[in-house]
Each structure stands twice: as C-alpha cells, then as structure tokens.
C-alpha cells in the first residue's frame, strides 16, 4: 500500500468514525424530531365484541384485535365500551388488559361502535389498535378538570375556563412534531360544551391542525374514561399520531334517517378523495343522536362501506359530541376542527 | 214540466246547503296548528316540527310562520303549505340554537296566513324526554326530582305528574297522583309504549302497534302487545294471572298524593329499539274511579282535533270508562335521551 492509498484509507476510517459519532449524538427520542421511520409499517386494526358479560366482551374484542394486528405490537389500544356502571367498565378493562399491556390501553364510555364486522350498541366493546414502525403514538391524560356539575346555561364562564384549562393541560403533554398528523381527543364534555374544550386544544396545537375525537357518554353512572387501567371522571384523554402518512377529514351533520345515511356516504367520499393516497383506515367519531334516527342500525355503516370497501380498517364509535370539520353554513375561516353535535366526523389515514 | 217542478227545489236546497257550508268554512278557523313536543333537551339541537291540519272542505294554501323562544334559532321558520280538504301535514325544522329551561315548557307561536284568515296559536310546548337513569324502585322518588322531566296534567283541579327514565334493562315510570282517597283495588295507572312511527288504526281488524300495561294492586300486568286485533282490545277481559316478569312496583301514599314508581324490562319491547335520540310514543291514564274518573295525560300535550280514537286504549274488567267520547290517542310523542344535565 503506497502513501496515497494509506492516506485515503485513513480518511475513510475518520469519516466513518465521524458519521458514527454524529449519529450516536442524536437523541433517541428527540421530541422535536420525526421519530416514526419513513416507509415503516403502519398497522391500524379494529375489533368489536358483544356479550352481556363485560369481562368476556372485553377479552373477546382484545383477542380479536390482537389476532388482526398479527406480528405488529400495538402502541395504543383505544377502547370504547357500552356497559353500565363502574363495576362493568372495570370488567371490560380487565378483559382488554388480559390481552394487551395496561400501559397502552386507554378508553372511554360510548354509545356503541362499528367496524367492518357490523354496528352494535348495548353490551359491546369496540377496540382500535395502532402500531408499526411507520407511526409514532403519544398519549396523554388530564383528570379533575373541574367541569363536573357545571351547567352550560348558568356556569358558562366557569365551564369555559375549566374545559379550556383541561384541554390546554392535555395538549401540552403531547409534542407536536414536524410530522404530527392527527390529534384524537376524548373529553367528558357533552356537546355543546365540547367547543370550549376544542378552544383549549387549538390554543396549543393551532386552529388548522387536524383534530378529531368525541365526547364520552353522559348516561347516568357511565361517565368514565380510562387510562392505563384506571377509571376517571371529569377527565380527558388524547392520542397524537405522527409519521410519514396522510390524513384527510370531513364532517357531516344529519338529523333524520335518510340524511344520516346520505351524509355518511358524502362525508366518507369527500375525505377519501381529499386523502390522495392509499387508505389504510377510516376512523369515525359519530353522534349517538344520529344513531337514534336510524331505522336500521347497520344502514349508516353500509353507507360508509360503500366508500371504504371491505378491505381497509373501519373503526367508528357513537359519542355525545364530536370533533372535526363542522358541517355548517357559516364556517370559521382558518379553523379545521370544531366541537359539534349531530355530526359524523370522518378521518381517513393513508399513505 | 213535472221534472222542472222537482228540479227547482232540489237546486235551491243544494244551493242553500252550499252557501251554508261556505258560510261555516268562512266562520271557522281554516287550519288547526300544533307544535310537536320537544323529545330531547332543546340545547342538544334536535329536529322538531309542527302539524298543520286543513279543517276546510276545500283546498288550503297558506304560509306558516313559527316564532321560537327568545335566543333560539332554527334552520327554517317559514313554510309554504298546500293542503287538500281535511289533509294533515307535518313540517320538520332543526333547532340550531336553543336553551333548556328549568320549567321544561317552551312558548312557541305559530301563525298561518291563508284562505283569507290569519290563525295564531300560542302554545306552551312541553319537553317529553326520558333520560338514561337507573332508579331504585322503593317509593322514594328523590332521584326523579333532579334528573327527570316532569309532565303535569291538571284535571278537575287534581294534579298528575309523570316522569320517565330508561336504561339498558328497564323502562321506569314515576307517577304522582293527587287524589282525595286511594283505593288499592280500583285506582290504577294504565300506560302504553310504542315505536316512534306507530299509529292507531280505526277498524277492529287492524292490529295494535303498542305495548300496554296496567298497574293495580301493587303489580304491573301486561294488557296488550303489538299485533293484536284492535277489536280484541275493546273486550273488557279479566287481568292476566301473572304480572310482567321482572317488573317492580312501589306505591306510597303521602298526604293527598299517591306515588307510583315502576320499572319493567325494556328488552322484550323490541319495537321500541330504545337508544339515545330515538323517538317513541307514550300514553298514560290515571284511573281514579272514586274521584276524578279517568285522567288522560294526552290532554296535557296540546292535542290536535281528530286525536280521539276508540281503539286507543284496551278495556279491562273493573274499569270505569268515561262514556261521552273516546279518549285521546295513546301515542304522545316522547323520546329517549342521555341526560338533561
């Protein structure tokens, strides 16, 4: 080896060492960086189980989800249940956490849910699993917001402060990264109170950031969310999704059977067209009131499926208020999501 | 010539009759108007509506305007209406902004301009909603006072207050009856539940679309279920031997008030398809034979003309029915909601 070659080899070694040194210096979980691997897998699956036995329903839904996720570990499992009282909800959580680690299980009381397998309400558990190298998941919880017992009619200012503060506290726990695409928020704040919560979220993440989600059930004895195995009332949860994928949203309002069915198709069509990518999943936060107007519970799901087909994941849940694009004539300029009622808030995720 | 002699009086009689009809039509209000009950708390922005009924023997064309309580907003408040003689039409509108009142009664003004007349109705619209609550059926009605919406009927100076709850297992009812005396073997509550689209037929061969129950002697008995010939409902048979399975009844008397608290399983009533936001039909009678006689809750719901129907309620042995005219239909619009808070 002559001198020139030795110099070149030495330079290569130094450069390689330098590269290793630089890459070694990068923080492994830099909150400002894009963590989710480009082109890494994104797995979003859902399952639904119905059983009068809450433990069995929770277990069955979780087992079905685990099977659907295949070899991909879920980073979060979002659970919605339609059972009475704290005891039965605890059983649902027991069932789900017998399959998944409680650290990734969060959820809320709803009025039913739907997947590609069907739509159900009473005594059901719906689960949504998100995992894969291509998607980064952050979750957050806020408790004791101070909104419990406050009335929209008589305590408007106090309520706006409690829900606004709660939402800000929740959103500040999450890092909005350059590749953050969607915030899912689920508060104990029935429509029309949910706009007060939305105002707080948007102060932190911006009015143009895609936010979807829904308000938990207001049925007596059911007003709970849960986070890592613990039940809470007067609380809210959130999931921030980041990565190399696309999100498109649409919202539709309806108050009659025919309009509910028609708007489900219209909204899903609009969101899918706006996605401009291959869809992976459709997530819908839907109004329990819309469900109440349906002559046949499955008709709205059929309308969604007319757009999604049967291959992509569908997860829908019925709520007491919804976050997403408002279907109103007087839209606020620059505002993407609002806290509404009577809406189906439809989000497509794809790449 | 003979034909002419007969024809002239005939023409005259027909002309006089025609004039009389026209004069009668001109004198009476051309339309009847009624705003729907509000079946979920108005602040949640539900669909509401009104009914217009042509009372004339001639077609009616007019404009109907709705004036909502202060601060409320609907997607539409003016409607063009064309009705055939005696036709009834329902007009829906969505409440976009509304507020709940502590009294649960809402002043709504409806005006119809047409057929040369202006008809105005000032209606106190009642909220007839059933929140999702699981009460303990024990005669203590305190949990009903904050969480239920009362519907009050005053009949012959005696008050009846009705409240409803539902949950995944049961339909629950609380009735406060003001009466001088309580007769355990004769005083009764009769109530009916039906789907939001149910109607009562007018001939004995048509079928019922309701579930009907009777509370008497501390028990709740089934009277009829959907699919029974209407004619059969008018045969006053004895009560069934068995009470409704898993029904619970508590009756308590305090001063001049008899309080009934009832729960019956909701799941067997599949036609109701109870869920948040769904409308259903409800009716209730108080049998107070030694006092006011039969009290009909539908009287509190601003009934339209023509709402009486002889097949509205099932007869049962021992009941004393008012003889003069049929009762109002047992299908007052009502709705399942999640909470009034």
Helical fraction of chain A = 25-40%
- Name the chain pair with the biggest interface and residue counts per chain: A-B, 30 and 27 residues
Poorly predicted residue ranges of chain B = 17-26
Shape of chain B: globular
User: How far is the first residue's CA from the last residue's CA of chain B?
Assistant: 82 Å
Largest sheet of chain A: 6 strands, mixed
Which series of helices and strands of chain A comes N to C?
A: HEHEHEEEEEHEHEEEEEHEHHEEEE
- How far apart lie the N and C ends of chain A? 51 Å
Taking all Cα atoms into account, the compactness measure Rg of chain B is 23 Å
Instruction: State the assembly state of the protein chains.
Output: heterodimer
The best one-word shape of chain A is globular
**Beta strands of chain A, count:** 18
Uncertain residue ranges of chain A: 7-34
- Structural class, from secondary structure content of chain A? alpha+beta
Features:
heterodimer, A: 351 residues, alpha+beta, 33% helix, globular, B: 341 residues, mainly beta, 7-stranded mixed beta sheet, 5-stranded antiparallel beta sheet, 2 helices
If you had to describe this structure to a student in words, what would you say it looks like?
The complex is a heterodimer of chains A (351) and B (341). With 351 residues, chain A is of the alpha+beta class. Chain A is 33% helix and 30% strand. A 6-stranded mixed β-sheet of chain A has the order 1-6-2-3-10-11, covered by helices on one side. In chain A, helix 2 (54-69) runs parallel beside helix 3 (85-97) and helix 6 (257-275) runs parallel beside helix 8. Chain B is mostly beta strands and 341 residues long. In chain B, a hairpin with a 2-residue loop joins strand 7 (105-114) and strand 8. In chain B, strands 9, 13, 14, 15, 18, 19 and 20 form a 7-stranded mixed β-sheet that branches. Chain B is built from 2 helices and 20 strands. At the A-B interface, helix 7 of A face loops of B.
Short précis:
The complex is a heterodimer of chains A (351) and B (341). With 351 residues, chain A is of the alpha+beta class.
């Amino acid at each position: 080896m002559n001198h020139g070659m030795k110099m070149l080899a030495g330079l290569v070694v130094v450069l390689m060492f330098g590269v290793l040194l630089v890459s070694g210096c990068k923080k492994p979980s830099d909150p400002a960086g894009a963590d989710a691997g480009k082109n890494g897998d994104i797995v979003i699956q859902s399952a639904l189980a119905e059983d009068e036995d809450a433990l069995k329903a929770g277990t069955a839904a979780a087992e079905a989800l685990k099977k659907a996720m295949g070899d991909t570990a879920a980073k979060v499992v979002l659970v919605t249940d339609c059972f009475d009282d704290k005891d039965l909800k605890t059983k649902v959580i027991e069932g789900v956490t017998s399959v998944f680690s409680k650290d990734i299980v969060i959820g809320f009381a709803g009025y039913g849910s739907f997947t590609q397998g069907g739509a159900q309400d009473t005594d059901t558990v719906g689960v949504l699993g998100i995992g894969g190298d291509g998607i980064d998941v952050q979750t957050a919880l806020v408790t004791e917001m101070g909104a419990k017992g406050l009335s929209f009619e008589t305590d408007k200012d106090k309520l706006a402060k409690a829900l606004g503060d709660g939402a800000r506290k929740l959103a500040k726990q999450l890092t909005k990264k350059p590749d953050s695409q969607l915030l899912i928020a689920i508060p104990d704040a029935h429509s029309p109170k949910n706009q007060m919560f939305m105002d707080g979220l948007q102060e932190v993440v911006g009015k143009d950031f895609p936010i979807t989600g829904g308000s938990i059930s207001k049925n007596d004895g059911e007003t709970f969310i849960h986070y890592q195995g613990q039940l809470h009332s007067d609380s809210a949860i959130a999931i921030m999704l980041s990565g190399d994928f696309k999100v498109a949203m649409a919202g539709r309002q309806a108050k009659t059977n025919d309009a509910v069915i028609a708007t489900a198709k219209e909204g899903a069509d609009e969101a899918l067209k706006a996605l401009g990518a291959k869809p992976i999943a459709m997530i819908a936060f839907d109004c329990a009131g819309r469900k109440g107007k349906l002559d046949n519970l499955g008709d709205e799901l059929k309308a969604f499926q007319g757009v999604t087909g049967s291959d992509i994941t569908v997860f829908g849940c019925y709520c007491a208020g919804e976050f997403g694009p408002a279907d109103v004539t007087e839209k606020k300029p620059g505002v993407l999501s609002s806290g509404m009622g009577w809406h189906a808030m439809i989000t497509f995720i794809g790449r | 010539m003979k034909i002419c002699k007969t024809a002239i009086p005939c023409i005259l009689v027909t002309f006089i009759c025609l004039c009389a009809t026209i004069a009668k039509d001109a004198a009476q209000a051309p339309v009847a108007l009624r705003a729907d009950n509000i079946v979920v708390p108005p602040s949640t922005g539900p669909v509401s509506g009104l009914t217009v009924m042509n009372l004339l023997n001639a077609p009616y064309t007019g404009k109907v305007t709705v004036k909502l309580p202060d601060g409320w907003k609907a997607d539409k408040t003016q409607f063009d209406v064309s009705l055939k003689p005696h036709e009834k039409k329902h007009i829906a509108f969505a409440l976009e902004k509304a507020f709940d009142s502590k009294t649960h009664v809402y002043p709504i003004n409806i005006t119809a301009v047409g057929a040369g007349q202006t008809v105005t109705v000032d209606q106190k619209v009642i909220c007839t909603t059933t929140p999702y609550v699981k009460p303990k059926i024990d005669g203590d009605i305190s949990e009903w006072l904050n969480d239920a919406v009362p519907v009050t009927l005053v009949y012959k100076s005696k008050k009846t207050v009705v409240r409803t709850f539902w949950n995944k297992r049961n339909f629950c009812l609380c009735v406060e009856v003001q009466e001088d005396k309580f007769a355990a073997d004769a005083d009764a509550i009769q109530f009916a539940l039906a789907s939001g689209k149910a109607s009562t037929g007018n001939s004995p061969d048509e079928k019922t679309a309701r579930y009907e129950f009777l509370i008497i002697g501390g028990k709740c008995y089934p009277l009829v279920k959907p699919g029974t010939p209407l004619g059969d409902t008018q045969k006053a048979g004895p009560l069934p031997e068995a009470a409704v399975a898993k029904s619970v009844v508590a009756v308590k008397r305090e001063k001049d008030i008899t309080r009934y608290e009832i729960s019956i399983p909701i799941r067997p009533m599949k036609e109701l398809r109870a869920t948040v936001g769904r409308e259903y039909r409800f009716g209730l009678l108080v049998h107070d034979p030694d006092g006011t006689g039969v009290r009909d809750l539908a009287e509190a719901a601003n009934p339209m003309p023509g709402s009486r129907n002889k097949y509205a309620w099932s007869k049962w042995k021992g009941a004393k029915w008012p003889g003069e005219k049929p009762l109002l239909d047992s299908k007052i619009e009502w709705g399942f909601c999640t909470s009034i808070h």
